[in-house]
Protein 1
Amino acid sequence: MHSPTILASAVAIGCAALAGSFPGSALEPNHEPVQETTAHFDKPDGPLVIPDAASGNLMLSDVLREFRRVTGQNICMADETLQMLSATSVGLIGGVTVPEGEVYSFMESLLHRHRFVMAELRHSDPPLLALYHKGSRDGQGISRFIEVEEAKLPNYADHPALLVQTVIDVSPLDARQVSTSMRTLLTDSNHQKLVAMGGASSLLLAGTGSEVSAWVSMLKKASENQRTLIESQPETKDD
């Protein structure tokens, strides 16, 4: 038998590491070595060009229209969400030209900054994305998440607004204990989920690509720490 204290310690270590990924109340995108971020989507037809909005009247809806033009994505949203986009200034100082391979990541970073998330409704042609604001009525109870295998999660690490979900094995940790401990770190129950599945070590994680990738990375480290702790403990013999 292995000590419950060891299990609790490993979960605490993992959660502490995860907490460090949350500046304030929101998870920021991972900006370590930039990778091509179009693995899930076709490469855009060209760069995303955002002009210098010296007058301050360039809105997020304007940039989203240019994003649609270069990617071919069809985008739907509720009237309330469209009004929010049309009333939200991009907030950039100066213009920027985003290369093709970074168009999705950059656009999603802007959306994330203003508390929008994106769900894929159709991947085949013609594609269809849905946009939600976390504070809108339409953003309550979102249920469309892209199913991603754990091995493919690195392709989604630079997708800070695209909703994904995955199931991982956290053994030798207990999935129920992990989900309970981590739940306090969640900032939005409408698009972030941590659910212990049928098996004792199976955990479902749902959120943006950046969030889920960060959680899985930290949980794998916590699992490895737990395994090392177990191996370093002498086996106890029953009397």
Protein 2
Amino acid sequence: MTTERVFCTEPHAYGPGPMHWAVWAADMARTHEQYECPDCHLWVIWRPRTAVPAAEPEQLGFDTEAAE
């Protein structure tokens, strides 16, 4: 049986280790999105989430005229 060595082109983030991985992954999930590595097919690539544009007060249901 032969195994091919795969050289990944994307940086991987494996986390702090098995003891605190769940907490680390929950924190990362709030600010990042997880992707599969195209080379090794492990889900170890984390990229920052794209910024969501701020909502206007009218979109949130605030009455802007009452504040004046």
Protein 3
Amino acid sequence: MRKLFYFIVALGVFTSCLDAEDNKSAVGDIYTECIRTTDNQLKYAPVMICQSNTPLDAVTVNHSTFASPLSLTAFDSYKTTFAKVPGETDYKTDKPVTGLYTYNVTFAGGETKEMTENLKGEVVEPPVIVPEGTKWNSEKNQLDFDWNDVTNFDYYSIRLYTIEDEEKKVYVSPLFKNASSYEVKRKQNDKYWAYEFTPNNNQEFKYEVVCYKMEEGTTSRLEGIARTKGLITWVGSDSSN
């Protein structure tokens, strides 16, 4: 579930592309995700999405370099969203092959649709973390995050995961704009923390600064996602403030 979250936030606007008048409508998208690893390496992987206003039976994607079509996986129980998102081992130092990708969609009931999506060469790189500003703030009893000032992203989000289980997301900030810093506090009834989760003193977390870039001239299609990963410690003292 964690793997899908970093792009699924865009599907609210992505679905606006669907034709409400059309009983069988589907749209696809493909973009490159770039991650900056904890050892400061840049790695890349393609993300493929298809969404419909009615249930789907199957979605495959093909490219001239593929030996055979790639099957996307149903994301929801209604089978209206199919996707192929990268696992940790799917990220490579080489960028994905650009060009036209052909989506073949089979609706529940047998109808089919073919469409093409163009993966462009532009890739948005993740921000560089400023170590001096990304740490526990003992005066304010909070985590501070600071990164280099970048202007080519439309939205940002901060995520925290437990060290023991990277699938266990314990904090997700709201999307925010025009920022190069963020503060994470722990307040009662804070909806951005996992339900009934309270960080322990001196507990270490994995974090991600996630950045979203929309295609120029649209608010409904992603051009790319970039993530910077690292480690941070919740030192604490009065973490229930």
